[in-house]
Amino acid sequence: MVDRLANSEANTRRISIVENCFGAAGQPLTIPGRVLIGEGVLTKLCRKKPKARQFFLFNDILVYGNIVIQKKKYNKQHIIPLENVTIDSIQDEGDLRNGWLIKTPTKSFAVYAATATEKSEWMNHINKCVSDLLSKSGKTPSNEHAAVWVPDSEATVCMRCQKAKFTPVNRRHHCRKCGFVVCGPCSEKRFLLPSQSSKPVRICDFCYDLLSSGEMTACQSARSDSYSQSPKSSLNDVSDDDDDEDSSD
């Protein structure tokens, strides 16, 4: 099916429409053999609150962006190579239902579909695309992925020292290795995580000690487990204007 669509006029036209929706700021998406599998709106769990994002699944990449005008204009384009992706289902809890984790070496996050059927379809299609890519390339699935950041709303105190309370003055920070919300004093150190950045990034003291001693995997947070153990932020939280997982904090 995908091979038949690869060079079809209909597929080329659909990809061109997606390109135009992102405008000049977006990267070109039309390449030989690329097929647009499907698209839709998913709720992405961002640092401040869950937000609607437009997702496009191709046979080799996953693309998403902010919705400016539905079906007409999107910005802040993100492109994720599918051969680096692994996905894990998330248990339903509260307002956040029908979700799964999208995990890559550089960035990992949770998304939620409107229905269980939509979730199943997305996960099945993503898994099929990843499987086909790995089969063709002979590569093995990625066993390294960035931590999924704990949303700000899930931590009123530092998740490491369990003492420092967050206020407008005492800001929240995120460890790039475990994804925990931590205070400044607990995350003053930097460490080079090549899959995430070419420069040393902020990590908590706990992860720094483990990384420095060579215990690289010990501080990797099991986010799929912690999602079912921690309180969820409401879909109606106060607003924030963009994805800021890549911000300096």
TrEMBL record:
All copies of domain PH, residue ranges: 35-131
Keywords carried by this UniProt record: Endoplasmic reticulum, Endosome, Membrane, Metal-binding, Protein transport, Transport, Zinc, Zinc-finger
Gene Ontology MF, one: phosphatidylinositol binding
Polar residues: compositionally biased ranges: 221-232
Compartment annotation: Early endosome membrane; Endoplasmic reticulum
Source organism: Oxyruncus cristatus
Function summary: May play a role in early endosome fusion upstream of RAB5, hence regulating receptor trafficking and fluid-phase transport. Enhances cellular sensitivity to TNF-induced apoptosis.
InterPro entries: PH-like_dom_sf (IPR011993), PH_domain (IPR001849), PH_domain-containing_F (IPR051765), PH_Phafin (IPR037871), PLEKHF2_FYVE (IPR047966), Znf_FYVE (IPR000306), Znf_FYVE-rel (IPR017455), Znf_FYVE_PHD (IPR011011)
Spans traversing the lipid bilayer: none
Start-end of Acidic residues biased regions: 238-249
Protein known as: Pleckstrin homology domain-containing family F member 2
One of the Pfam families matching this protein, by short name: FYVE
All residue ranges annotated as the FYVE-type domain in the record: 152-212
A cellular-component GO term for this protein: early endosome membrane
A Gene Ontology biological process term: endosome to lysosome transport
Topology term for the membrane: Peripheral membrane protein
Region Disordered, annotated ranges: 221-249
